[in-house]
Amino acid sequence: MLLKNLRFLYNKNGNFLRVINRSILVQFSTDGKNNIDFSQIPIEKIRNFSIIAHVDHGKSTLADRLLEHTGAVVPNSGHNQILDKLQVERERGITVKAQTASLLYTYRNETYLLNLIDTPGHVDFSNEVARSLSACQGVILLVDSNDGVQAQTVANFYLAFGNDLVIVPVLNKIDLKNANPDRVCRQLESLFDINPNEVLKVSAKLGIGIDEMLEAIVTRLPPPNVNRDAPFRALLFDSSYDKYRGVLSLISVNDGSLKIGDTIQSCHTQSTYEIKSISLLTPNEKPVNTITAGQIGLIGCNMRTSKEAHIGDTIHLASESVDALPGFQPSRPMVFAGIYPFDQSQHVHLRSAIEKLVLNDSAVSVDIDSSPALGQGWRLGFLGLLHLEVFSQRLQQEYEAEPIITAPSVIYKVKLKRTKQTIKDGTEEILINNPAVWPEVYKIEECFEPMVIGTIITPDKYLGAVMALCMERRGLQKNAVNIDNDRVMLQYDLPLCEIVVDFHDTLKTITSGFASFDYEDSGYQSSNLVKMSILLNGVCVEELSTIVHLSKAQTMAKKLTLKLKEIIPRQMIHIAIQASIGGKVLARQDIKAYRKDVTQKLYGGDVTRRKKLLAQQAAGKKKMRSVANISLPRETFIDVLKK
After folding, report:
1. Which of 106, 165, 186, 373 is most buried, taking the most CB atoms under 10 A from its CB?
2. How many helices (H) and strands (E) does the chain have?
3. Where does it mainly reside (predicted)?
4. Binding site annotation covers 202?
5. Which pLDDT belongs to residue 391?
6. Are residues 247 and 310 in the same domain?
7. Which DSSP string corresponds to 362-400?
8. Of the residues 220, 246, 265, the one at which a domain ends
9. Going by C-beta distance under 8 Å and a sequence separation of 6 or more, which residues neighbour residue 326?
10. Is 175 within any annotated ligand binding site?
11. Looking at the structure, do residues 101 and 244 belong to the same domain, yes or no?
12. DSSP bridge pairs for 16
């Protein structure tokens, strides 16, 4: 009977890996037959933790192995990236949305509840990491044994360290032939003062070392500091939208317990709701009647709009007042872009899609905007360029919307000269993310642009090219540290506007893909910014204006005028394309008019007849230029404004 319950797992080469007890798989499966009462698990048997790492270091694969070893899913079921549920995540092979799974694990005949949160690795989704850490007491710091410590590894370590979380260092991909665990351990000791003897070595792909890591989670991480006898209090740290149930809120219960039918209240909005459903994610939804302190669960209570589900809010029973829990620092958008419907008849559909998607991604800020060329739309704020691309891709895939995305820009700060009007209105300092509302030069006292601290880890043979790229992007070096004999970590002060579009791609190109890049907000710095206007036959086209640094104005002017010459169609009149700052023209391109041969019908006679016809044509062209408007098709604006 014992042998019947054992399942032997092998890798592709037929080598024996591990044995899993079938009875455990049945007992802890999530097919609805699980009869274990999660609410009865003692607090000291609960562990809340996240997996944090640089992108492509194997977080999702490790999460898959943890699900298999704890019996949450059947091994070798043919499904990979189980917690990556979005289509965009599977297509791109990255994690975009942090996902939670409640797992049961038996250690020394004691059942433990492990609440796992799988987080993204890209810098653009660092808000998902920060939000997830607010519900954890420890983290798994995952590092690739082949690539070693990367830029986002450094950022994630200090994010967890700043939250006073217990860090369990784990080296992944030890099965690769180029893996060098000893070198990576030295890097961890050099950068983070981590004892090499405490570093675990695993292969998430083959399942090697997973049992040791589960034991370390139980023995090294502390249980949550909660009180089940106090009045109910929970932190709302994530939300999603379901078309049948409305807004679903993911909560981390700090005190007391909650059951279906209770009436809760929001500390932020003071609104009250009746609990309609409570679920645990195992990783599929498992309906339960009660959720208690120390657990992480999903509640449905008929919330309908994104304004009601405030991320970082504290919820409590309406009958009892409590103090709000310390939340987390809200994310601040770094990159802004305009989103417009391809046709104004699609405006309502696109608005509904954006509202629902913002529920799943609270880091996006939304403001109403309009453009004479593109019509009514929205100005959305994102954490980075990849964040923008993923958001627009989800709009198309999940809601079948076809948006027009304008070129990304950043938010500038302008200090106006003190006048009676600015003092009265309190507008001495204004924030601007749209060139159309840039003040006149005579009103500006000083301009400021957002800065970031960029961390670059690169092999030393590419050091010269990386430094040249940073200098070209107006970077100022702050620090340089040798990680080991082969790699260097550089820190630069960089203007945000110089890195949001193509800095990462250029860095990967010049370093053959070996360098990694991460950045964090560094406030504002005084800068010589100007508004570059585009004139067509002397008439300013506001939608094509842009904000640039004075040192790069000449180069940008030439690029933009050449691009406009290529995409603006020829017309019956001559078109002069000019890029100017104030009254000074920096670059000019000309589009010649269509010319009709008015002398074609002449077959002879005096030359004065030819001159007369040409003079009449010239007079007509001159009159047309004075009264005619240049007709720019909508597609021209789209080609210029979109990414």
Report:
1. 165
2. 16, 33
3. mitochondrion
4. no
5. 86
6. yes
7. TT-EEEEEEETTTEEEEEEEESSHHHHHHHHHHHHHHH-
8. 220
9. none
10. yes
11. no
12. 10
3-state secondary structure string across 605-620: CCHHHHHHHHHHHHHH
Give residue 217's pLDDT: 93
476 with 566, same domain: the answer is: no
The answer to the question of whether 196 is labelled as a binding residue is no
**CATH no. for residue 42?**
3.40.50.300
- Lowest-pLDDT choice from 133-137, 196-200, 347-351, 615-619: 615-619
Q: Are residues 152 and 36 in the same domain?
A: yes
216 is in an annotated binding site: no
Q: Which neighbouring-strand residues pair with 488? A: 458, 482
Determine whether the annotation assigns residue 119 to a binding site.
yes
- Is 557 in the same domain as 629? yes
One-letter amino acid of 588? R
283 is in an annotated binding site: no
Strands (E), 164-259: 166-172, 200-201, 233-242, 246-255, 257-259
Q: What CA–CA distance (Å, rounded) separates 204 from 331?
A: 31
Q: Which residues contact 130 (CB under 8 A, 6 or more apart)?
A: 159, 328, 329, 331
Answer whether residue 5 is part of any domain.
no
- Pairing of the two strands 575-581 and 584-591: antiparallel
173 is in an annotated binding site: yes
> For the segment 129-188, what is each residue's pLDDT rounded down to a tens digit?
777 888 889 999 999 998 888 888 888 888 888 888 999 999 999 988 888 999 999 989
CATH of the domain at 365: 3.30.70.870
Q: Does residue 455 share a domain with residue 560?
A: no
54 marked among binding-site residues = yes
Closest C-alpha to 299, from 251, 360, 264, 238:
251
Q: 423: phi > 0 → left, psi -120 to 50 → alpha, else beta; which?
A: alpha
pLDDT in tens, 437-487: 888 888 888 999 999 998 898 888 899 999 999 999 999 999 898 887 888
CA-to-CA dists, residue 69 to 166, 280, 282, angstroms: 23, 19, 13
DSSP annotation of 406 reads B
Residues 450 and 501 occupy one common structural domain = yes
Span 383-395, pLDDT tens digits: 777 788 888 888 8
CA dist., res. 151 & res. 436, Å (int): 36
Q: pLDDT-derived band of residue 640, with 50, 70 and 90 as boundaries?
A: low
- Top mean pLDDT of 173-187, 395-409, 605-619 is at 173-187
CA 527/CA 446 separation, integer angstroms: 8
426 is in an annotated binding site: no
Residue 120 marked in a binding site: yes
- The response to whether 59 counts as a known ligand-binding position is yes
**pTM attached to this predicted model:** 0.72
Report yes or no on 175 lying in a domain. yes
Overall average pLDDT of the 403-431 stretch: 78
Distance CA 137, CA 165 (A): 5
Q: Of 501, 527, 553, which residue constitutes the final position of a domain?
A: 527
